[in-house]
Amino acid sequence: MHPINFTMILALATTVTCANFPFEAEVLTDIDIAAFPDIAFGDISSPSISDHDKRPCRAHPSTPDWPTLADWHRINDSLRGVLLKPAPAASACYADCDAEREKCEWLRTEAGQTRFWLNDPINMFTEWTVGNSCGFPRRGGDGEERECRQGGYPVYVVNATTVRHVQIAMNFARRRNLRLVIKNTGHDFVGKSAGFGALSIWTHHLKSFEFVPQYTVGQGDERYTGMAARVGAGLESWEMYVHMEKHNMTLVVPNGYSVGAFGGWTAGGGHSNLASLYGLGSDQVLSFQVVTADGRFVTAELGKNEDLFWASRGGGPVMIGTYGVITSAIIKAYPPIPVTLSSLNFTSANSPDLETFWAAVNTYFHYSSHLCDLGGTTYNYITNINGFYTFTNDFELPSMTAQHTLDALQPLFDTINDMGIPVVNPQPTTSLRSSSGSNGVGMASSSGLWFASRLFPRANWDDEELYVDTMGAVREIVEAGYTFHGIHMTPTEAIAGWPGADSGVNPAFRKTVMYADVWMGDVTAGAPAEEVLRNHARFNGYMDRIRNVTRVGGGAYVNEADVLEPDWQRGFWGKKYKRSLMIKRQRDPWGLFWAPTTVGSEKWTVRTKDEPPTQDGPLCRVER
Which residues form the FAD-binding PCMH-type domain (predicted)? Predict the structure, then answer.
């Protein structure tokens, strides 16, 4: 990754405004625009907006409207040298020099134990989403070698460290008909940060933080008074833990330590291990700083841009392409909370038979709803490897003592032991929520997994016949060879409180007692299209069984989703979709922000050579 070797020029003026952080005080000025009109603001009030640029596809390097090299020089000058043109990491494996071959071997064997993949501007969590672009070649050259090209990876990247950088990139993309994508860590399952021929805004370095001991917003019953924090959108979960420890307080953050804490995670809802106690990530937000599609930098909160504030909390991944780009947020903070941990594990090998194994799983699932009522969250995995079944589970119970946890779990362990499966209720451990045990190093590289998700309604637990049918669907998908990951949580509207209860988040979150994602793997980038689609059709058939049994009150989670989710508008947003779509059309009449399975994305499609839904092709309007 190297910056383009352009000559840098100094901006003639910088306007300092009152903003959350110093990086938000540096904004685009009229002087900047006069020097380069291609970075001018848009006007959503223009009466001719509906007739704005109707070219069928976004520009890409093979089209005549793609910016010239001189244009890219000028945009880099305006950005003061932060424009990158990165090659895919695996390109080192296609070079002829010893140094690059050594780098290739390091990427294969050691990079996953460093920050390399997280700090790469174009790496994707799910490699298959970029198509057969530039994967690692087979060792020894056995068979047909894979190729290396830019493909589904963005062509240019703006390494944004100020609001001004975001505004310039956004305005240039809008005025020059470019595909625009947004990336923080790339922790996404369907390729929302990928894009053939795209210009990418990389928000990874917006990592400012400020603890606010006392913050008040609202009036009367609709009011929040308490601790808060201002958080830059580039902060990862593990970094938030560092700040929690420093300031002796608790924040609701993602479970995955490398997940960006308050960008796409919040905008899609955002589950965590405090969901049953304090609600979703989106429920924590009191204010957003956002750059909207016209390039303007605005505050979205109660009383200011309330439509944007409503939609940005659960109404679709903002940072990765729906209504705008979040640069920072003000969120609720809480006193330090001890979390008591325990576990439950068993296999088909230490069960009398397979029926008993599944009976124990069913007992655990049913009992976990009680733990949610205590403010707890549980995390389980069920796997099937050639007929050998494993069940593993972690309990996380905030504000409970070790003895209270032992007592709360003992009836569950007693029941499973009575079934003939020997399990021991272990001595729980208690730690402060402010300690993550991670320094952000050693995160995994790209994977080839294909995910689908489901929010299971509590009503399925309350109806005995429906519960049996629900667990039958779970059993079927595991027996078919797929991995099931369940999280028991209850982020109800009552728990969400104010202002979280009134937001664009999927209504299914408010009725759920378990969120689950299921995955098939390993989807190899470059695999024949017919093979990928055949495998997905089988996978989707089993997911349909789960969807059908949870159709009333259920839904799916847009941040951990199947890119081919059927009826995704209803699945991800339910009755909220209509309002979210209206806000999307008002805020982004150009369709500047686009990512698969986001609000309004049905108006565009990626044209690929094969049918699998990768991002390795031009983004074009859907013909009606």
Answer: 150-336
